């Protein structure tokens, strides 16, 4: 810790005294129903955040991601980036939060956009993922600015959109335009809900593809005159079950992915459709299926390449073809994300882990996320490796009904964010 201990103590006291502000800010953010899709209330939510930071001496800019998926005059993809310059030269620490939330779904016992406070928790869609984290980072930085800490370098806070749908109108768009690259930014903390005592250094990769097996239509009473695409697909499934799944399970990783079950390559069969369309009325007609389609969702490790992931599936299909003379297939790639992993001993991960130890009195768990988040864009597009996720929400509550964030966790994570920011800004 380079910052004077007296200043650190006063910052921590300031944050404790601002518990009500953290709660109120979280409630205000939850009350903007920023549901994605379609991208509701992005502008008022971004402006609310921008106006607050403008009053605190931040330079505030709004960036609309024109032409990105879903962007329209009715649902503009509005991002806000606020920057506060320090008194002298130094690095820049950036806190990035997505302001979009997923649909509410069924099963709520509270108003999803009410921001109700009960038993030390704030409830609502986005409380955990990740408006509570955003509120904690804002109050952490405000407390730091008010403490008399001689801020070198710069601090940035952004509220970005569309993380839940891939981040193309949010962090990806900004990263393509230099907002997440050196020399502008040096360290990025994304307050995603990975639990208050964990530092998340990255995430696995994603590859989605559709495999279609092809057959020949014939009368269902004489299937031997046709060629069933469903039977071909069943041969594919057999190979997946007995060859691919064991191979994936045996692949061990240096990525500390949580939960434990995700610490390997995985593949989910997202959907499977063959033969008669699902929306027929009346009785089905007797036909041999000439097409069967399957969508796969493959999650891969930093030790794998996307080429090897694809190659493994095409090799499997080619093995099926050797055993089944009339086997024909098509493969269509739908979506991919590269895995990302920061150095666990790098500045931002080590400063945050050290701050967790100081504030919570225990070792931070260094983890990777089973799914992806915006770190991929900071890493791959912005070419900025020193990026982690650290925030107060409980991972398992994300996207659930009655989502909440703990008030004590928000206060503690704000302290961790403030201490690690001071550390990062005053190193060398
Ligand atoms: Zn999130």
Structural features, described:
By secondary structure, this protein is of the alpha/beta class. It has two domains: 5-203 and 339-426, 3-Layer(aba) Sandwich (Aminopeptidase); 208-337, 2-Layer Sandwich (Alpha-Beta Plaits), CATH 3.30.70. 34% of the residues lie in helices and 24% in strands. It has ten helices and 16 strands. It has helices at 5-17, 19-30, 42-55, 127-146, 171-176, 229-249, 306-323, 347-360, 375-380, 407-426, and strands at residues 59-64, 78-85, 88-98, 117-118, 121-123, 152-160, 187-190, 198-203, 205-214, 266-274, 291-300, 328-337, 340-341, 365-369, 387-389, 404-406. A six-stranded mixed sheet has the order 1-2-6-3-7-15. It has a four-stranded antiparallel sheet with strand order 10-11-9-12, covered by helices on one side. A hairpin with a 2-residue loop joins strand 4 and strand 5. Helix 1 packs across helix 4, helix 1 packs antiparallel against helix 10 and helix 2 (19-30) crosses helix 4 (127-146). The longest helix is centred in the middle third of the chain and has 21 residues, at 229-249. The radius of gyration is 24 Å and the shape is elongated. The structure holds zinc ion. Zinc ion (ZN) is lined by residues 98, 129-130, 163, 192, 373.
Topology:
Elements: H1 5-17, H2 19-30, H3 42-55, E1 59-64, E2 78-85, E3 88-98, E4 117-118, E5 121-123, H4 127-146, E6 152-160, H5 171-176, E7 187-190, E8 198-203, E9 205-214, H6 229-249, E10 266-274, E11 291-300, H7 306-323, E12 328-337, E13 340-341, H8 347-360, E14 365-369, H9 375-380, E15 387-389, E16 404-406, H10 407-426
Parallel strand pairs: 3-6, 3-7, 7-15, 8-14
Antiparallel strand pairs: 1-2, 2-6, 4-5, 5-16, 8-13, 9-11, 9-12, 10-11
Helix pairs in contact: 1-4, 1-10, 2-4, 4-10, 6-7, 8-10
Bound molecules: zinc ion (ZN).
Zinc ion (ZN) binds near residues 98, 129, 130, 192 and 373.
